[in-house]
Please model this.
Amino acid sequence: MAEQLEAEDETLDQARIDAVLAAVEARDSAAIDALLEPLHAADIADFLEQIGASDRRAFLALWSHEIDGEILSEISDAIREEVIENLPPEVLADAVRDLESDDVVDILEDLDEPQQELILDALEDADRVAVEQAMAYPEYSAGRLMQRETVVAPEHWTVGEAIDFLRKSKTLPDQFYHVILVDPRMKPVGYATLGRILSAARSVKLADIVEESFRTVEATDPEADVAYIFNQYHLISCPVVDAGGRLVGVITIDDAMNVLDEEHEEDMLRLAGVGDDADVSDGAFATMKQRLPWLVVNLFTASLSAIVISQFQATLSTLVILAALMPIVASTGGIAGTQSLAVAVRALATRDLTRANAARVVRRELGAGVLNGLGLAVILGIAGVLIFGDWHLGMVLGLAMIVNQIVAALGGVLVPLTLERFGLDPALASGTFVTTLTDVMGFFAFLGLASLVLI
Model:
């Protein structure tokens, strides 16, 4: 089985996972090596995330000597601490020595202090100092995101001098995209891409081939702002400076894109009310702790709908059919609110929705709500006549639908805008508020109109 999979494509599929687990059960290290050798480090990390905790411990007991820094950096935060606990100290030391400073910081951030010390002790003195300095910056800042390994050149150098320096240097980062030009005070003044350096004549000054996209960020800037700058201005790398403007590190596009991915994932999870760090590797108790608080909040907000409904007991007892039709108005409004909310939260995250264009976006959502309401009102009005033989009932359904579609459209954009105005995360509680708003207004509009028109 191992030989057959080894000869096939280098992907992680269920057959390969099953084969590796069978080799673990048989304590066949050679078979495990043969099965995992063709895989990328990210695929091996995925394998560790997809198997259970007991299988993971058994696997690491046989294969921990092969865990390197690249695999360690690819493992999700949810199980990285568990994996590190099961690694022999010498394996962990070798793994972190292979990593650049930003990857080491990324690993340390989610570990307890004893494990942090274990990793720091494994680093060379210079690397430890660099990592500790990065860890001194605020969490989720550019200083935590940057790598200390940079490639710099004096601003007066020529292309030939830069090439000679690069060829002789033995401490270059594994990957870099720019040579950063600095003045005598170590303040970055520009950067040149490797492509332009290699294609220019040796006599050309580096200052003559710098990129127009050059800009810097401060080490204390929020990482979300850094990711926005990368995305907005199509950067490949960006120098990081301290409060005095001196170069302290560089952020590369892979780290910036990781931040964007994490921001998107957090927004999705928060909108769903499951916290911002939920993971399929979490246990039942951890999952409960993430979800129960918002379920309790929703329990109280749902009671508002119950209070509204209770005010129309006489109407419902007179026309029992209304009870069957209420969910149509409320649920359709909830879906419309979620649609508007998703667009608004995403636009706020990417800064496409700002105070400058908020009024225009609100007017657009209002118009869309009116049009959607009218379209649904026509459908429900016709259904009311054809199914129930009562045009009054169809009219009530249609009018209630128009009202709730307008409420849903406006709530979906105004709720996150309001939360953002008060410095709160728009994704954190918007879903609960918008759902409550559409339910309450849907029931109130439908039952209120029914009381006026049908009773």
User: Anything to note?
Assistant: The first strand starts at residue 152 and ends at 154. The first helix runs from residue 2 to 7.
